[in-house]
Design brief:
Radius of gyration: 33 Å
Distance between the termini: 33 Å
Shape: elongated
CATH superfamily of the largest domain: Glutaredoxin
Strand order of the largest sheet: 5-7-6-8-9
Number of helices: 11
CATH class of the largest domain: Alpha Beta
Strand content: 5-15%
Structural class: alpha+beta
Number of strands: 9
Length: 302
Amino acid sequence: MRSSFIGRTPTLAASLATHLAESAAAPPPKARGPAPWYGSAALLRLALAALSLCLALPPATLAQESRPDAAKDATAKDAVAVKKLLEAKFPGAAVSNVAKSPYFGLYEAQFDERMVYTDAKVTYVVVGAIYDANSKQNLTDARLRQLNRVAWDSLPLDLAFKRVKGDGTRKLVIFADADCPYCKRLEGDIKKLDNVTIYTFLYPIDQLHPDSARKSAIIWCAADRAKAWDEFFDAGKLPDNKGDCATPIKDTALLGERLHVSATPTLVFADGSMVPGAIPLAQLEIEITKGEAEAKRLATKK
């Protein structure tokens, strides 16, 4: 309503100016005292000034308050149309998070754990990462991390074993496979971390490491799980038990499936962002610090 009213303002102002001009030309009534300063001539000048101002404003300015919402609605409808086209052209694909990207007028869409880009008619699909040429940042990965965040409070940390380093003020979750060579590399760097609490979910990937589930069960059944894990990666030594206690391995597998964990190690930081793979110590420190800062920023918004 506001934009429609403003859009008619020049017409209303013109009508007002005409009306006042006719009033000014008519014979004045008998004066009952000094004419007030706000008489017909002054009102006429005011109306003409308003008319000039309204005519000088472009239509886009007059209706600017209603345009953003309309543009958002149109973009949202376009995204829905793009999603339908993608699903029609790629049957069976899990398409989600379709939105207009800031790059080249393309739309972004998530296919499982991968981001693709396409035009409004889905004539072409671009698969690959977009980088910031100045910062060298992988913008596609950053966007995926933002979209795939998990709520830290929703993680069932009782299914993981805990290691506390230093004051333990920072937080890190790891999905790890006992026989994963990249997990072994990560564990070497973790020894150099300080002031962090690490929650490790035992996540054996049977297709790659058939004996990992057995080893994971033996480690979980140890009296000191953190110590058993460290000793296994340091020297390949397993605790002296049969691994026949109750373990959370099946529940952890379901959790990983729900969170789309497809590789080990997979790291989850305090803000819920997830990163697959073993990253170097320096980068790990950066990501932990970034996650803590982002978690605090998100908490202030609640």
